[in-house]
């Protein structure tokens, strides 16, 4: 993980279907900061995160990471970032432990079990993800996040399906991440309980 990093979005326009989204959006996020993307349903929050992650190219504008222009080649950013989307973000036909060994092959089994314990899913390590509840599956995706060692976290509705304890655990982990130099860009329709963020509002 990088000790200092920055992401800058300048004059970004995204086209999806027939719609222009973001409409000249600019913001930046530095190590130690959380930026929360707000907006109505359909405003373009997921499209923005996917564009930063490199799933789509913007119509116009510039994306810079650690001072480098990565608009047309997001590989530098991708090496350093993890994107968790709306969907569960783990493989439904693998068990909990198989998923984490697949996504985090360099992590020892000991560390992996510590994280599963922290996320309170140790009773389900050998269960296929498709047989877990939505909240339990989300916790497996969070275990992947916990273990990733990436600097930039791009999180689309990460609190979805989590119970109160799950929300607390995730907020604590995000706080720990930014305190150790990480950057977080997230979307959520929920209020953040303990985290302070800078908000960027997308207009419909
Ligand atoms: N697969 C797609 N193909 C074409 N257009 C799409 C597609 N997905 C989304 N869009 C368009 O992009 C717009 C923004 O969608 P997006 O999912 O980014 O919004 P959002 O702000 O994340 O919404 P929500 O709060 O409902 O999750 C939608 O209104 C839709 O018009």
Automatic annotation (TrEMBL):
| Highest rank taxon of the organism | Bacteria
Q: Which GO terms describe its biological process?
A: cytochrome complex assembly
Entry's Gene Ontology molecular function annotations: ATP binding; ATP hydrolysis activity; transmembrane transporter activity
Its keywords, alphabetically, are: ATP-binding, Cytochrome c-type biogenesis, Membrane, Nucleotide-binding, Translocase, Transport
Q: Which Gene3D superfamilies match?
A: P-loop containing nucleotide triphosphate hydrolases (3.40.50.300)
Q: Which residues form the ABC transporter domain?
A: 7-203
What PANTHER family does the database record attribute to this sequence? Answer: ABC TRANSPORTER I FAMILY MEMBER 1 (PTHR43499:SF1)
| Record protein name field | Heme exporter protein A
Source organism per UniProt: Marinomonas rhizomae
């Amino acid at each position: 993980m990088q000790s200092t990093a920055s992401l800058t979005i300048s004059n970004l326009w995204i086209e999806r279907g027939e719609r222009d989204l973001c409409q000249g959006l600019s913001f930046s996020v530095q190590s130690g900061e959380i930026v929360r993307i707000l907006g109505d349903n359909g405003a373009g929050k997921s499209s923005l995160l996917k564009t930063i992650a490199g799933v789509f190219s913007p119509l116009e504008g510039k994306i810079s990471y650690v001072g480098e222009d990565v608009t047309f080649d997001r590989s530098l950013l991708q090496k350093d970032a993890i994107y968790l989307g709306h969907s569960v973000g783990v493989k439904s036909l693998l068990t909990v432990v198989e998923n984490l060994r697949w996504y985090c092959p360099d992590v020892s089994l000991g560390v992996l079990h510590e994280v599963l314990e922290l996320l309170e899913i140790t009773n389900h390590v050998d269960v296929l993800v498709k047989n877990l509840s939505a909240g339990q599956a989300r916790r497996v995706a969070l275990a992947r996040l916990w273990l990733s060692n990436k600097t930039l976290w791009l999180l689309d509705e990460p609190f979805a399906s989590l119970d109160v304890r799950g929300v607390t655990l995730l907020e604590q982990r995000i706080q720990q991440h930014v305190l150790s130099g990480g950057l977080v860009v997230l979307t959520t329709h929920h209020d953040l309980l303990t985290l302070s963020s800078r908000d960027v509002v997308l207009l419909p």
